[in-house]
Specification:
This protein has helices at 6-21, 23-45, 57-68, 78-81, 84-112, 133-164, 169-184, 203-218, 220-229, 237-261, 276-285, 301-313, 326-340, 355-383, 387-398, 413-438, and strands at 347-348, 351-352. It is an all-alpha fold. Helix 6 (133-164) crosses helix 9. The longest helix has 32 residues, at 133-164.
């Protein structure tokens, strides 16, 4: 047995407190980097050579914010409004914004001294306090390698797939890399005039895009661990939960969408019967991305409700996807199930969860719901129209999903301001809230008398 002296414990606690204090400047530095990237992207999009017509500042900066935060909502059609230069600026904003998030979010958690779900000393040394530059680089290297490698392989695969879809060589050579970045970053920008509906007849393009979106929603860390271990069972618990939850959401969403839209002639009902399951599976895989082969505004009301819930769940923690995150959603479900069964302990996939996990997940869900309700009410007050469409659009912006019910295209200044606020809050809010709740605090020395409140 190893005995740790009181002085050592005190020093470790002091280092932990200093690491927790550094979270605020770390978040401020990350926000500043994003602000600089958004400003640069917006100014470049205002260049006369970046658009086919004179770009309005409101359109340019809204597009820049959407690209950098990896949302995908846009007031103009990307391929028709922007030139090759403008499309290149958007692609660069997506790529840099995604890499900034993958590395910055991980290092912010590391500064707090919390686990990132990796116990391997060779990939991540878990400690309290501030990492050195060498340690930070070692932490970021596998994530960057997977992210860049996935996008490069996706681009290589999409070029011949788009050639097979009938696109000219010059167009395929650009559209392949652009959509590989857009799909993996879960950004959702599409270049064809009718969006990804141009590839509705091409399963190869849809399959490659769907795989890229799934990997982006899962995050590069679980993929790097799987490549190193080549065993799903040997992955950390958090990575296995995220992968299974994403797969379950993909299949459940596809089945529900297929049932709801089977006879809707404006969406799946207008397609051949054998193609409907393929398109439903693709649409479900795009719930964190925003690419779509369907006219989202033509979905039935029940499908919009379903899509709103799927967007709110989002992807895995540490990935480029937004939303509540599948891990938090599973913890909430497990906690509710345990409460209904009269159990005090929460278990998930044979593992008992910490006592505070449910409280943290509940706080995240409550904050997300409150933000969606407030922003949705503001959008309805500013623009009127359908309450469901307004909520759909706000949740899409807040979860960084990018699906649109047609509100963004016709939005005025007030509505755009609300959507911009939703995108920025959706990018930084969940991480900031998690870091705030997870940091170490001194517990009050005295406890109150225990009592209860009646329910029902």
């Amino acid at each position: 047995m190893v005995t740790v002296g009181a002085g050592t414990v005190a020093r470790e606690r002091a280092r932990g407190k200093r690491g927790a204090v550094r979270i605020v400047p770390a978040l401020a530095g990350g926000a500043l980097a994003y602000a600089v990237l958004i400003a640069a992207g917006g100014l470049l999009l205002l260049l006369p050579s970046a658009s086919t017509a004179d770009a309005r500042p409101a359109d340019a900066f809204f597009t820049a914010v959407s690209a950098v935060t990896l949302t995908g909502l846009t007031p103009v059609q990307t391929g028709a409004h922007w030139t090759l230069l403008g499309e290149g600026v958007i692609a660069a904003c997506m790529a840099i914004g995604g890499l900034l998030w993958l590395t910055g979010a991980g290092l912010a958690l590391w500064l707090l001294g919390r686990r990132l779900g990796v116990r391997d000393a060779g990939m991540r040394r878990l400690f309290r306090g501030r990492p050195s530059a060498r340690e930070a680089l070692a932490a970021a290297r596998p994530m960057l390698a997977v992210a860049l490698g996935a996008q490069a392989l996706g681009a290589i695969a999409l070029v011949p797939a788009m050639l097979g879809a009938g696109q000219p060589l010059a167009r395929a050579l650009w559209w392949g890399p652009f959509h590989a970045v857009s799909a993996f970053a879960n950004a959702g920008f599409a270049l064809p005039p009718d969006g990804y509906g141009a590839f509705a007849d091409d399963p190869a393009v849809l399959a490659i895009t769907g795989v890229l979106a799934f990997l982006g929603g899962l995050g590069p860390l679980p993929v790097a661990l799987w490549l190193a271990r080549r065993s799903f069972r040997r992955l950390p618990f958090d990575a296995r939960v995220a992968a299974l939850a994403l797969l379950g959401a993909l299949l459940a969403g596809a089945a529900a969408l297929l049932a709801a839209e089977w006879s809707n002639a404006a969406t799946l009902g207008g397609e051949a019967a054998w193609r409907r399951p393929i398109l439903a599976l693709f649409e479900s895989s795009m719930r964190t991305t925003g690419l779509t082969t369907l006219e989202t505004s033509s979905l039935r009301e029940e499908s919009k409700v379903l899509a709103t819930g799927l967007m709110a769940i989002g992807g895995a923690a540490g990935s480029v996807a937004g939303g509540l995150k599948v891990g938090a959603a599973l913890v909430l479900a497990a906690g509710v199930a345990a409460t209904l069964r009269g159990r005090r302990r929460i278990s998930l996939l044979g593992r008992e969860l910490p006592a505070g996990a449910f409280r943290m997940a509940f706080a995240l869900a409550l904050a997300f719901g409150a933000a969606a309700a407030a922003l949705g009410a503001g959008l309805i007050a500013a623009a009127g129209g359908s309450a469901l469409d307004a909520l759909f659009e706000v949740v899409s912006a807040l979860s960084l999903a990018g699906w649109s019910a047609g509100v963004t295209e016709t939005a005025g200044a007030a509505e755009r301001a609300l959507l911009l606020a939703a995108m920025i809050a959706g990018r930084f809010g969940p991480l900031a809230l998690v870091l705030f709740m997870a940091r170490e605090r001194r517990q009050p020395p005295r406890r109150h008398l225990e009592d209860s409140i009646r329910f029902g």
